[in-house]
Here is the input.
Amino acid sequence: MKLFRIREKFYLPTDAWILAFSATIWSIGGSMANPYQSIYFFTVGANSIFIGYLLAMSSALTALMQLVGGYVADARGRRKVVIIFSFISAASAFVYIFIGQYQLLIIPVMLASIAGVYGPAFNAILADSMKPELRAKGVACYTLVTSIPSMFCPYVGGILMGRFGILNGLRIAYFISGLFGVVGVSYRAIKLKETYQAIKSEKTKGIFHFISDFLSDNTYILKNASDGVRKLLFYSVLVSIGTGMTVPYTSLYVVGALGLQPEIYGLITNITGIISVILLLPATRIVEKVGLKKSVIYASLSVPLNQLVFVRAKGMDDLVAWGVIGSASNALLGPSLTALQANLSTQETRGRIMAMFSVFSLMTSIPSQILGGYLYNNLGQYVPFLASIPMFVFATIALTKIKDNAIQNS
Here is the structure.
C-alpha cells in the first residue's frame, strides 16, 4: 500500500506505476551489462564491421516486430503481448553466458529483437494512463523511478570486468540481468491488467487474413497520418542516422581509442545517469513553460555540440563534460519527445503511430550502423562521431517545421 501512495506523488497512475516498478527491478541487472555490449561483442571475437552488420540485422527485425506490435496493441489488446514478450526479452540475457564464438551472438540479439514486439503496447499503456497535460511530467517521473536504483550499476559492471576479466565479468553481469529481468517481469505479469479493450472480430481469422489486415491497416495509418506526425517521423529518421553511426561504437572508442579502463567508463556512465535523474523534474518545468515542441528543439540543439565535445575528448575531464551535456539534453528530450509523440495521436491509433516512430528510426539506423562500422574500422575511430553531427543539425531544423496547432491533447 505504501508503494501505491508513493506513486501518486510521482504522477504515475496505477498502470504506469506497475510498468515502472517492474522495469526498475529489471534495470538493476540490465544496467550492469548493457553499457558494455559492444565490448562484449569485441571480446568474443567480433570486429566493428561484424558488429555493425549484427546490429543492423537486429534493427531490421525489431522494426518488423514493432510494426506487428503496434497493430496487435490496437487490434487485439495490450497486456498479453507485453507479458509474453517481456519474458522472452529478459530470458535472452541468459544466452550470452554460453556464447563462445562471435557468430553465435546472433541468437541472443535476434531473441531480444523479436521480443521488441511488445514495445508499442508498453508505450501505449504508459501514454493512455496519463492525462495529456501531465504526460511530460509523468514520463519524467517514470524515468526517475526506473533510473535511481540502477544508476550505480554500470560501475558495478566495470568492477566485475576488473575483478574477473572482461569476458567472465560480463557473463556474470548478463546472468544478473536475466535474473532481475525475470523477477521484474513476473511482478508485471501478476499485477498488470488489460488496459485497452479492442473491438474483437466475430470469427477468428487465419494467418493470411491477419497478414492482409496488418499490411492494409498500417498502410492506411501511414497514408492518413497528420502533418505533425509526418514531420516528427522525419525528425526521428534523421536522428536515428546519427545515433546509428555512433551509439554502437561509443564504449569501444572510450576503452579502445582513448585507453580508459572499463570501470572508468562505467563511472562516467554513472555520473551522466545521476545528472539526468537530478535534472528530470526541473526539465518538466521547462516543458510546462515553453511547451513540448520547443523543449524538444532546445534539447536537440545540444546534441551536435555534445558530439563535437566527444570527438575532441582527450581524457577523463573531457568525457565528464561530454556526459554532463548529454545528461542535460536527455533529461529534457526524453519526456518531452515521448509526450509529443503521444499527443500527436489518438488512443485508437496510438499503438500503431508510436510503432511507426520506432520502425522508421530502426529501418534508417540499419545502413547507418553498417556505415558506422566501416568508418570506424577503415577511416578512423573518431570519424563516425564527426559524420553524425550534420544529421543532428538537420533533424533540429526539421523539428521547427511542426505547427503548434498540430499537437493534440488526447
Summary: The mean pLDDT is 82. Residues 350-379 form the longest helix (30 residues). The domain at 12-193+206-404 is CATH 1.20.1250.20 (Growth Hormone; Chain: A;).
